[in-house]
Amino acid sequence: MATHTAVEGTITVGGTGVGSLRSLGLDTAAETIDATTITSTSKINKAGTTSFSGSAECYWDESDAVQTGMVEGTTVVLVWAFEGTTTGDYIYSGSAIVNSVSISAATDGMVECSFSFTGTGALTRGTA
Fold first, then answer.
1. Distance spanning both ends of the chain, measured CA to CA
2. What is the pTM of this model?
3. Contact at 8 Å (CB) between 76 and 13?
4. What angle do CA 46, 50, 56 make, to 5 degrees?
5. How far is CA 9 from CA 33, 108, 109, in A?
6. Cβ of 26: how many Cβ atoms within 10 Å?
7. pLDDT tens string for the chain (128 positions)?
8. How far apart are CA 124 and CA 32, in angstroms?
9. Interacting residues of 34 by C-beta distance below 8 A, sequence separation 6+
10. Stretch (H or E) spanning 51
11. How far apart are CA 85 and CA 17, in angstroms?
12. Distances (CA, A) of 67 to 2, 75, 108
């Protein structure tokens, strides 16, 4: 069984990596359509449309064009590479709308930012 550490993970926006990355996430889902008929003795379900959403958290860097370019409402092309980008590593890619941008600071911490995305279209699964 292969395992990976988070240090291998990256997320790119338009082909450029997000700098000072702290964490990344991807959620996928499929709707379920109830196709049960009146004569059915068991519930019958069909797969419906699929969707994905995701997030990235990093230390804020105003000199990072990727971070400053992620503005709510814009569409971006994302590639999530949780295990890295070595040939054969599994990756996920797709277009998404930037839902939210959050920048925060605390007196005893770093300035941090987080971005959330909602997919538009299909999520592609493949390898680097």
1. 20
2. 0.89
3. yes
4. 150
5. 35, 27, 23
6. 18
7. 778 888 889 999 999 999 999 999 999 999 999 999 999 999 999 999 999 999 999 999 999 999 999 999 999 999 999 999 999 999 999 999 999 999 999 999 999 999 999 999 999 999 99
8. 20
9. 43, 44, 45
10. strand 45-59
11. 11
12. 31, 14, 23
Residue 53 token pair? 């959403």
Single-letter amino acid code for the residue at 5: T
Amino acid in position 93:
S
Instruction: Say which residue the tokens 């680097």 belong to.
Output: 128
Q: Round to whole Å and give the CA distance between 50 and 116.
A: 18
Nearest alpha carbon to residue 75 among 56, 60, 97: 97
Question: What six digits make up the tokens of 117?
Answer: 């995305």
What is the C-alpha separation between 120 and 52, in angstroms, rounded? 8
| Spatial separation of the C-alpha atoms in residues 74 and 52, rounded to whole Å | 16
CB 102 within 8 A of CB 71: no
| Tokens describing residue 26 | 């991807």
How far apart (Å, rounded) are the C-alpha atoms in residues 25 and 116?
9
